[in-house]
Amino acid sequence: MHEINFWISVVATIAFAVTGVLAIADRGVDIFGVMVLGVITAIGGGTIRDIILGVPSFWSETQMYVWLALAASIATFVAESFFTQPQIHRTMLYIDGFGAALFGIAGLDKAWNLNFGLPVAPVILGVVTAIGGGLLRDVLAGRKTLLMSHELYAIPVTLGCCLYGLVLQFFPQYTVQASVICIAIIFGIRVAAIHWDLRVPKLFITQTR
Amino acid sequence: MHEINFWISVVATIAFAVTGVLAIADRGVDIFGVMVLGVITAIGGGTIRDIILGVPSFWSETQMYVWLALAASIATFVAESFFTQPQIHRTMLYIDGFGAALFGIAGLDKAWNLNFGLPVAPVILGVVTAIGGGLLRDVLAGRKTLLMSHELYAIPVTLGCCLYGLVLQFFPQYTVQASVICIAIIFGIRVAAIHWDLRVPKLFITQTR
Amino acid sequence: MHEINFWISVVATIAFAVTGVLAIADRGVDIFGVMVLGVITAIGGGTIRDIILGVPSFWSETQMYVWLALAASIATFVAESFFTQPQIHRTMLYIDGFGAALFGIAGLDKAWNLNFGLPVAPVILGVVTAIGGGLLRDVLAGRKTLLMSHELYAIPVTLGCCLYGLVLQFFPQYTVQASVICIAIIFGIRVAAIHWDLRVPKLFITQTR
């Protein structure tokens, strides 16, 4: 289990960095900006979570995540034409969606195990872990954040984290099963959203006056 | 006194969330963005203050604030046409101004009681408590922040916090009276600014070249 | 040595505030925005570093930095026409470059001495100390951040910090010499970049599609 978790988070970190760089590549970013923004996309959410939790940033203890994100960002810059192929880009988006699911649930778990403001705060911090890095990247790159884009990204993460929080609160004996199921739910909705290009229906959007 | 404080901060949290959502509603935000940005407007400033203070975020201990902000944000989304009526919107702005006054002074108090960098740091953290949430919302929503808008919002808060800090430093025996008076000053200037649409005079604005 | 360090950081704080204000002056900022953004430019990077380190913000202990930045910001506002003279502005940019070099190396030192995630995290925090304040200012002012501007600013800082980190890791006996040399390297590249208006070559920029 631990072994699996490790490899999943390796793959997810790489996917976060790659999709993070691809999201901003069309704005003409230099290699340094690519490295910084790729790393921020990959480790930014967990950093905000750890700051709010008052614990040392996870990457100060496991530096591998910085190196992975850095290498993935540089590789994306060098092989931009490879990664921007529609099929490859889409595959990265799927892995990125899986990463968001995993990081969200893992972030919630970390806060829950630290007994931080149960039960509401861990759910918030799970969502922050999954989307915080992307928000930081978009703000620093002058890009519309996903809070304004009507994408189905943060919504499945939030649904899955709420569900997982409910199970931890009321049925703690099913923690392991719930984590797998909630990751599957988040990933499933995200895959559907990418595949059919689903967005938030107009009914749930404020009217532009 | 404690009782009053509690109810004031309940009302102020709701007002922050409502005005926070109204500020971005014209940009076409979905219900999820509304919830996130409403909550961030309401609790973001206090969160930054607590991070700088190195204490757990206030909402991890009193989760009610999250629920209040969430409920107020959703209500604003659902009843958008109600809240955007000029008279109601204006009333919310007044309550929001009162909330900013209260949160600013309360934030200063918290830092002061923790003996954090007296006397300058508490004044800064009071201002951060009052305006930080709105700044985060504007940045995440891609909106001009109030630092650039020439509104009389942060200025009265800062004046009131400076005055309150001076009293705490030199006349600590008048703390209670000073807090009431400083809240009144901030709120009074803010009411005048809303009522007469006062802005920072041109003399105090850098010349656009 | 300690004496010199003190005076250098005084001058650097002032230069950060002045160049910070000049960078946004053309957007029509009021005196309050000038004060806030000037102070944030000067102390924001160190604040983010201290938050990630989990130590009290440096300005809560040495409040002088806040006063210096505040005074420099107000002076820049009042004497805008003086500071915007090409020769003066350029001089301030040179001092600012020196400040970035100094703050980067000093920030790295602080993290290293706290044993925070050696050897990678201190290098990251050195860079954050040098450029974090400018990033915050640009985001709050709605300005393109330097990560997107192809300027040679963050790059020399990062090179110098990496080099210094390598020396601290492998040749700790040369710490003092290395700090002077790395500051000189950062400053030298920055001076060259300002003087000849050097930018990141096109080869190292993603293609805008």
Automatic annotation (TrEMBL), chains A, B, C:
The record's similarity note reads: Belongs to the UPF0126 family.
User: What InterPro entries does the entry give?
Assistant: Gly_transporter (IPR005115)
The UniProt record lists the keyword Transmembrane helix: yes
> What protein name applies here?
Membrane protein YeiH
Could you name the Gene Ontology cellular component terms for this entry? Answer: plasma membrane
Source taxon at top rank: Bacteria
Transmembrane regions: 6-25, 32-52, 64-84, 91-108, 120-140, 152-171, 177-196
Q: Which UniProt keywords apply?
A: Cell membrane, Membrane, Transmembrane, Transmembrane helix
The cross-references to PANTHER family, in alphabetical order and at most eight, read: INNER MEMBRANE PROTEIN, UPF0126 INNER MEMBRANE PROTEIN YADS-RELATED
Cellular compartment(s)? Cell membrane
Give the lineage. Bacteria, Pseudomonadati, Pseudomonadota, Betaproteobacteria, Burkholderiales
Membrane topology summary: Multi-pass membrane protein
